[in-house]
Every structure is written in C-alpha cells, then in structure tokens.
C-alpha cells in the first residue's frame, strides 16, 4: 500500500469522489441531493494498492490555522483493512505540513462507521460550521494537531 499526493484533476481521484458522492446519496436516501466534484484548492492523497487508487481524501484550507478534511472515501472491497485510519493520519500530517494547527470535518449522521472512525482517532464533536449549518444530517468534528516541542 502506498499513499501519494494526487492532483484534483487526476482521473482516479475524480472516479473515487464520484463513487463517494453516489454512495452518500444512496446512504442518505436522497436527502442531500447535491453532487460535489473535486476542487482545485483541495490537496488530495490517494491510497494505491497494486497500482490502483482504492481510497482518497483531501485537505482544504479554511483559514491559516484550520484545515478541513474532505472527500474521505475507501472503495467497499477495501474496507475493514485499516486503510481509512492510515489515510486519515496522512491527511492530518498533510494539514500539519500546510501550517494548520487543527483540522475539522463533516460527516453524516447516517454514516456510523465514519463517526466511529473519527471519534476513535481523537476527533471531538463541534457545532456545525460553514455550509453545514442548518443541515440536520451533518455532524462536525475537530482535532488539534500535535505541536513540535
């Protein structure tokens, strides 16, 4: 397994984001209805297994201190192997390298596995922020990143 940086325009990243959005629409019963695409200002990481990208996630700057973890997704056939946990750690490292002292993220109340992952990795619930304010299906989390002594 390899975790590498990929451009927002990378075809494998775009395919993973499309699969993520499709799965989210199915999981929330069509409650959201939005289709989100990749963004040029998100720095993506891809998890590559046997030459194929099987997972992705990104970091987008919210401000100088905070980054947002975006588009975390692992193909269903690769779940349960610890890939999401390793990808999340790599995304936190990327956010740290970008100068962020904390990261935030949003997930859905209808995604208990995601909520479990984030809480088990030290994320604390926070009030909804930005575009998630007022969405009854959004649950938001934050984590302070370690500071070098």
UniProtKB/TrEMBL annotation:
Gene Ontology molecular-function annotations: acyltransferase activity, transferring groups other than amino-acyl groups
Gene3D superfamilies recorded: 3.40.630.30
SUPFAM superfamilies found in the cross-reference section: Acyl-CoA N-acyltransferases (Nat)
GO annotation, cellular component aspect: ribosome
Pfam family, one: Acetyltransf_1
Keywords (A to Z) from UniProt: Acyltransferase, Ribonucleoprotein, Ribosomal protein, Transferase
Transmembrane annotation, as ranges: none
Domain N-acetyltransferase residue range list: 1-146
InterPro entries referenced in this protein's UniProt entry, alphabetically: Acyl_CoA_acyltransferase, Bact_Acetyltransf, GNAT_dom
Name this polypeptide is given: Ribosomal protein S18 acetylase RimI
Organism: Micromonospora avicenniae
């Amino acid at each position: 397994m390899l975790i590498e940086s990929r451009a927002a325009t990378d075809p494998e990243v775009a395919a993973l984001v499309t699969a993520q959005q499709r799965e989210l629409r199915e999981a929330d019963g069509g409650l959201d209805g939005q289709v989100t695409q990749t963004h040029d200002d998100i720095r993506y990481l891809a998890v590559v297994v046997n030459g194929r990208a099987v997972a992705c996630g990104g970091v987008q700057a919210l401000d100088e201190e905070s980054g947002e973890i975006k588009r975390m997704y692992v193909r269903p056939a690769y779940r349960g192997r610890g890939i999401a946990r390793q990808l999340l750690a790599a995304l936190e490292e990327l956010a740290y390298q970008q100068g962020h002292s904390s990261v935030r993220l949003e997930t859905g109340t209808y995604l208990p596995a995601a909520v479990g992952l984030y809480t088990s990795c030290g994320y604390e619930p926070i009030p909804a922020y930005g575009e998630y304010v007022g969405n009854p299906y959004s649950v938001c989390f934050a984590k302070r990143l370690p500071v070098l002594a």
